[in-house]
Amino acid sequence: MATPLRTTVKKNNIKTTAKFRRLTKILTRYHQALMTHGKTDHLDRTIRNTQLMLIQEGNVCKEQWWQAQLEKVELAARCNIKFWKHIKRLSGGSNSHTPILKFMENGSEKIAKTDEQKVNVFTKQLEKTCSISAEENQEFCHETEIMVENELRRNTNELTTEWTINLHKIRDRRHNTLPFNNLDIVNSIRSLKNRAPGASGIRKPYFSNLPPNIISNICHLFNCCYAPHI
């Protein structure tokens, strides 16, 4: 008895390779031969081998799709609108969806279909990859660990955040001035281009009409940010 031909069409936005399309045509012909001449051991074995090759090539198409999306995000990073558009698309915020994700759990292969499942699988795999067992931890050189700990202890003041910002160490004693003054802030605001605002929604006209006390506060913040790095 001939096995019925199953035709399922599923649309997606994954670009297939030439090998994938060629294997699809070959598998279709094998199924037609199966319907016409019936099942034989040789034909059944050939169909199974072709199906395995098709699955492998399908995984290659998915990997190429992911790589293409990453490249698009990198290119779109130059434009804020395009960048968040691609991030929204990859995170499942638009109609396009990411391919299913296969993973191993308790010795069996499982599939993550929803975006939430894919995030959980990715998080667990990343934690597993970055974790260090007790046996691996013992393989570190103790002398190197002691040297690193001593180095961190000697440079604690430079590595930890200062609770009190000291502006005297960045003040020019000769002219009694700080690295940033109010005129620097005003000139920076004038040099801004009147483009679309970011997440804050503040446009250039708002900055251009700031009162003097706000300019002084912004200048003070710049000097405070600059002080810990000296």
From TrEMBL:
Protein name, entry field: Reverse transcriptase
Organism in which the protein naturally occurs: Meganyctiphanes norvegica (Northern krill)
Top-level taxon of origin: Eukaryota
